[in-house]
Write a structure and sequence with these properties.
The chain is an alpha/beta fold. The chain is 46% helix and 17% strand. It is flat.
Length: 471
Amino acid sequence: MDYSSFEDTIVAPATVPGTGAITVIRLSGPKALDIAGNIVKCKSRSIEASDANSIRYGTVTSEDGSVVDEVLVSVFKAPHSYTGEDSVEISCHASSYVASEILRLLCDSGARVAEPGEFTRRAFVNGKMDLAQAEAVADVISSSSSASLRVAMNQLRGGFSTELKDIRERLLEIASLLELELDFSEEDVEFADRAKLSELLDGVIKHITSLASSFRQGNAIRNGVPVAIVGAVNAGKSTLLNSLIGDDRAIVSDIPGTTRDTVEEAITVDGILFRFIDTAGLRESDSEIEKIGISRSLKKLAEASVVLAVLDSTVSVEINETIINDIVSKINPEEQKLIVLFNKVDIITPNRTVTLLNKDVSSSNSKVVKLYISAKDGFGLELLKNELVLSQKDLTLDSDQTIVTNFRHYEALCKAASALEKVRSSIALGLTPDLLAEDLRDALTHLGTITGEVAPDEVLGQIFGRFCIGK
Ligand SMILES: Nc1nc2c(ncn2[C@@H]2O[C@H](COP(=O)(O)OP(=O)(O)OP(=O)(O)O)[C@@H](O)[C@H]2O)c(=O)[nH]1
Ligand SMILES: [Mg+2]
């Protein structure tokens, strides 16, 4: 399909099908007003003759003259619309029959059903937003916590794009100095002071690297902080998962080795999305299936930002020590937070003298936190949640700091940084400007892919193909 000339007028429902009060059908393209005017009749002026940004009331009738629905039509005129084209939004009653009839009538009048993300793709091509902003539209729609919404909103409003523009300008300045030298290369002049160039580069590399390193945090905000629940069989891991999420999600039984596959469920605590992962109990096993389960547990343990090591307080201190040492040997203390949970305290101290022990924990900053809990009756779980929130306090920053949440952006930033590292070492080696300029152009290209200045068709296809129809 040729996206450079949008001759087609596209149509799709902009709301999800199902019960609700209204359905909105969106139409965009050069004939949007004509096509809508064909099927919606208004008392006074026609839809085609409506003012921009007005809402009209009208009746949709089918070919045989029968009334399909009474609707409201919002009229937008190019370039002041979401897509930058003439657009209308028809609000009809939320009957799937009514919506499909209206869609059919619009298509019979010359519209074509939109592909996924085609409205936003048009907005991008028509310069209403850059690629990073277009991707943020999808992130805003799927945001599930205040933090993920804030980051997506910042990106949608162009926060990230502005920063990238600033970086590109600084690089272009360096590039233009080098290009100038290239023009005069015969005369062997050195316009750009190499020390000054290195200094400018250092600043840009630092900026790009800090953006790239925000990705771990960004990923946690977008997909949830991965919290692995690990420990020996029967310690109460699945019971803990169920209590935390308030649902009987995982099977609980007193048979050791109940959980085989990992079970994941996300909840929001204090505006932060946590993704809890219940895993198969760690033990030596002869069962092939259980072995696979245990290798999955270890993988989840390695990937988690927080590890909840669940111990059964009713077993001996020595056994628990062995288990804990085993888990500690598998985590990376620089990147992962360990919380040790002594579970089933309801059995060992029914009168809850352990409350005193938990007192020491509140707001501890140490890497390893120990808590006494009862997954079964919920004792200590509020403290656990506090600890989890505390461990992610960098996610609760309420600044407008740019955080990279998208893997595509992260990759492009890393590639740009490594191209600039090459420029830096070329300068140190005293290489000629043509070699420097090439790596610099590479870095600019990588940065350009983020906002879409450089956007091959297949990349656009991948990005917009993930959108829903109507967006
Ligand atoms: N009294 C008491 N029993 C508990 C507690 N937590 C779990 N249990 C019991 O311990 C047994 C094992 O619980 P699970 O949650 O299935 O343990 P698990 O760690 O997931 O076990 P596997 O999946 O086999 O590794 C069940 O009978 C639970 O009811 C608790 O806090 N107190
Ligand atoms: Mg289990």
